[in-house]
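ARCHIVE CARD
CATEGORY: sequence design from structure
SOURCE FIELD: tokenized fold
FIELD CONTENT:
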């Protein structure tokens, strides 16, 4: 990205001093860390590769972005997994030893669908939780936007929205569902989204999506927070 757009433009876009910007980790090579049944073309990275790539990213972040704690950073796994990294004890310990602040890997639903629901198939609310070694998992809720753009090779099990109006309507419904649930259980409900600037560019030509969903969220009393802020909330 720096090679394509220049350091100044990238640093302006990813201002690490802004409250709305968080520098996290998504691997260096985009290798998955756990097998995905619907993606036999993807081979998981081994522990050595994961550690090496984390250090590569640390060096790059320290070189280009100062003023933010980038060593103790969050880690969103490439592509994501159903049930996150549950049962992957060695992998979880590897990430904990790297001083990962939190993990966001629980990004899929039944049959590895890209559309994890707010209420799981077992009737539980999909919210942040901790693994046995204490690491915090911050799951995603709702469509991964690679389904909107059509860039994902994963088989889809439902029909996703196909244009900006349908996508905005979808997010409105998601926010309302969370708001109603929050009022019912009398506590905050966290919605973690999976959105890629590249994929958003396919269906949002005038860059209006984020201001519109922010306005919609705030109209029902919701607010935006980085994953890091959510992690701090659960640490307190």
């Amino acid at each position: 990205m720096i090679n394509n757009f220049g350091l100044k433009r990238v640093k302006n876009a990813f201002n690490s001093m802004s409250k709305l910007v968080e520098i996290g980790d998504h691997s260096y090579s985009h290798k998955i860390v756990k097998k995905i049944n619907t993606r036999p073309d993807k081979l998981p990275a081994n522990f050595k590769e994961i550690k090496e790539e984390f250090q590569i990213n640390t060096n790059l972040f320290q070189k280009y972005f100062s003023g933010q704690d980038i060593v103790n950073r969050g880690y969103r796994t490439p592509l994501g997994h159903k049930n996150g990294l549950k049962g992957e004890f060695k992998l979880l310990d590897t990430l904990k030893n790297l001083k990962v602040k939190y993990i966001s890997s629980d990004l899929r639903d039944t049959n590895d669908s890209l559309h994890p629901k707010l209420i799981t198939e077992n009737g539980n609310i999909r919210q942040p939780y901790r693994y046995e070694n204490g690491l915090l998992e911050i799951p995603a809720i709702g469509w991964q936007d690679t389904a909107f753009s059509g860039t994902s090779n994963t088989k889809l099990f439902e029909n996703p929205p196909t244009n900006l109006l349908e996508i905005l309507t979808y997010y409105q419904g998601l926010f309302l569902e969370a708001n109603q649930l929050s009022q019912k259980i009398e506590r905050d409900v966290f919605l973690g989204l999976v959105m890629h600037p590249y994929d958003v560019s396919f269906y949002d030509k005038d860059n209006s999506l984020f201001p519109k969903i922010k306005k919609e969220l705030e109209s029902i009393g919701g607010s935006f927070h980085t994953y890091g802020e959510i992690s701090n909330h659960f640490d307190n």
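CARD ANNOTATION: Strands lie at 75-82, 103-108, 129-130, 136-137. The radius of gyration is 18 Å.
SHELF: design records, drawer C
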